[in-house]
Write a structure and sequence with these properties.
By secondary structure, the protein is of the alpha/beta class. It has twelve helices and 30 strands. The strands form seven sheets. Strands 1, 2, 3, 4, 6, 7, 8, 9, 10, 11 and 12 form an eleven-stranded mixed β-sheet that branches. A six-stranded antiparallel β-sheet has the order 20-21-22-29-24-27, with no helix packed on it. It has a four-stranded mixed β-sheet with strand order 14-16-18-19, covered by helices on one side. A hairpin with a 2-residue loop joins strand 20 and strand 21.
């Protein structure tokens, strides 16, 4: 059995903690561990390998986080499929299935769910694998704890699915809970690759045929890279609408596994440890958080924060944005993100520190006509060969040694030395050493946006 890990999503419901280029599955929310890492570790106990389906801008986060867990990275050789644009779960799963043997059992899981009862979970997986081997499409129905209106439901008769239900209103959700045979739709599935593809071809032939073309035309080297044109041509649809709600081969496994989709700050609050006044604090420096006569708050910050005489608040502080709202209102965060997008703000997309395939950059200062960054390039990595139309750059090496390409020349820049890249000049930065290269970059120009990059050559095959 192979674990298909779906890493899509834009992270809007947990903004400003989660961003488009650092969605919630990669944010280390639980004692320095991310939901993605927990997904990999949990499922490797039942699966032979991982197959990660990711946005092309995020796959290196998965690679880095797997590498942080030697027991995972040394014993597993994960597969990767990169989507240049998301088309929902049906195409993502189809593309992964096309890369596998028809008899391979696929355990399809989101990368951003929390499952705390792993013993019960592994028992559920064993049941699902057995049903999948018999040619069924298996879904996992979460035993509901309360009348939730934010999830779809599955109506069951034993392990047979009677119907799928859309997100209900409060009264309907309560009736589902009272009936006792309705389950939350978890978005997890188990089936043979060939069975899924046959049902997809039967019930959603346009998605099937477009997915086959996209896969056949894909670049398949160390990764499977789908072209933007082929991916965009696949009709967008979820696996539920495309297959599960139409197929006669669907089974459901009732799953009481302490599951959460951690889909809001209210949900995150419930999953974190709380103090004697029911405050949940998430910080790498908890000693810097001062709480005085405050109760039932969620506080996430990595700077000194004082919370005094307030109750029932969500306080989320990052280096470049602050969110304060009442508990129970966190679903409105996506509206804030929508407003920021209308204002053409970069805040929904990146943090002050952005993770790239070659390392990180941190914006230290920015105003009209200039931007100052701290850049860290990992050993053996290099940035793309590129140029900029609207800015020049000054580079000062803090530690390590930079190998710089500027025009037709290549030279070294060592600690406490600097160089200058004129506007329009083709250039590249590389670290051929064995320690991190740390440098300060000062950009000066009429426009210093992150999209002023013309890539000529790139190790990571970005456009």
């Amino acid at each position: 059995m192979i674990n298909i890990i779906l890493c899509g999503g834009s992270g809007t419901r947990l903004w400003p903690l989660s961003r488009k280029l650092m969605p919630k599955q990669f944010v280390k929310l639980f004692d320095g561990e991310s939901l993605f890492q927990m997904t990999v570790e949990r499922n490797q106990k039942a699966c032979d390998n991982q197959f990660i389906v990711s946005n092309a801008e995020q796959y290196f986060l998965a690679i880095d986080q797997i590498a942080e867990r030697p027991d995972v990275s040394q014993s597993k050789d994960a597969l990767y499929l990169l989507e240049p644009v998301g088309r929902n779960t049906a195409p993502a799963i189809a593309l992964a299935a096309l890369a596998l043997d028809a008899e391979e059992i696929m355990l399809v899981t989101p990368s951003d769910h929390l499952i705390k009862d792993e013993v019960a979970y592994l028992e559920v997986l064993s049941k699902a694998e057995k049903l999948a081997k018999e040619g069924n499409l298996v879904t996992f129905g979460i035993t509901p704890d309360y009348a939730e209106t934010g999830f779809g439901y599955i109506e069951a008769d034993g392990d047979d699915v009677k119907s799928f239900k859309e997100k209900p209103d409060a009264a309907t959700a309560q009736s589902y809970l009272d009936a006792g045979n309705y389950y939350w739709n978890s978005g997890m599935f188990c089936f043979k690759a060939g069975v899924f593809l046959a049902e997809l071809e039967k019930y959603s032939p346009e998605i099937y045929s477009a997915s086959v073309k996209a896969y056949n035309d894909a670049n398949k080297d160390d990764l499977i890279r789908i072209s933007h044109a082929d991916m965009s041509a696949i009709p967008e649809d979820s696996i539920d609408y495309a297959v599960m709600e139409k197929s006669s081969k669907v089974k459901v496994i009732p799953s009481d596994i302490s599951w959460s989709d951690v889909g809001s700050f209210d949900a995150l609050y419930e999953e974190l440890d709380q103090d004697e006044n029911n405050n949940a604090i998430a910080s790498s420096h908890k000693e810097d958080i001062i709480v005085d006569d405050a109760r039932n708050n969620l506080i996430i910050a990595d700077k000194q924060v004082a919370v005094v005489d307030v109750d029932d608040l969500l306080i989320i502080d990052t280096a470049d944005a602050l969110l304060i709202t009442k508990k129970g209102s966190s679903q409105k965060v996506k509206d804030v993100v929508g407003e920021l997008k209308k204002r053409n703000s970069e805040l929904p997309n990146i943090h002050v520190t952005a993770h790239r395939p070659w390392g990180t950059y941190t914006i230290l200062d920015e105003s009209n006509g200039y931007k100052v960054k701290r850049i860290v390039v990992k050993p053996g990595k290099r940035l793309s060969l590129q140029k900029h139309y609207h800015r020049s750059e000054h580079w000062i090496v803090v530690s390590g040694t930079a190998t710089v390409t500027r025009g037709e020349t290549e030279f070294l820049v060592r600690a406490n030395e600097s160089t200058y890249i004129p506007m329009g000049e083709v250039h590249r930065l590389e670290n051929i050493g064995k320690i991190d290269l740390v440098m300060i970059e000062a950009q000066v120009g009429e426009y210093v946006g992150e999209d002023d990059i013309v890539r000529i050559e790139d190790d990571f095959k970005r456009s």
